[in-house]
Amino acid sequence: MGSNSTWTQKQNKLFENALAIYDKDTPDRWHNLARAVGGKTAEEVKRHYEMLVEDLQGIESGQTEVPEASMRTSTAPEQQKHDDPLHYVIENSR
């Protein structure tokens, strides 16, 4: 399937939760994440993570706009970034 595989909302949430558990120092991290998400290979999970990191870097540098769905409140973008659990997890797992 590779990096073009579709991720459901449920899988994304499971992925987010698993990232908080399996940090960069976890042995077999990608296999553990894949098992937690279900229906994805370790390679798909790793690529999904890499794409999220790329998106985050683009948003932080101003090269990528924040997706409309992410604009849940009228909170300032800098505050949204710090309130977003996925941002926190990714920042702390790099």
Which percent range fits the helix content? 55-70%
Which term fits the overall shape? globular
- Number of helices, where a helix is a run of at least 4 consecutive DSSP H or I residues: 5
Spans of at least 5 consecutive residues whose pLDDT stays below 50 are none
Summarize model confidence as the mean pLDDT.
80
Question: What's the N-to-C terminus distance?
Answer: 25 Å
Largest sheet: none
Region (Disordered): 59-94
GO molecular function, one term: DNA-binding transcription factor activity
GO cellular component, one term: nucleus
Subcellular location: Nucleus
SSE map:
Blueprint: H1 9-21, H2 29-37, H3 42-61, H4 77-83, H5 85-91
Overview of this structure, please?
- The model has no long low-confidence stretch (mean pLDDT 80).
- By secondary structure, this protein is mainly α.
- The two termini are 25 Å apart.
- The protein contains five helices and no strands.
- The chain has helices spanning 9-21, 29-37, 42-61, 77-83, 85-91.
- One of its GO terms (molecular function) is DNA-binding transcription factor activity.
- Residues 5-53 form the Myb-like domain.
- This is SANT domain-containing protein.
Quick overview of this protein structure:
The chain has helices spanning 9-21, 29-37, 42-61, 77-83, 85-91.
List keywords for this structure.
94 residues; mainly alpha; 5 helices; 60% helix; globular
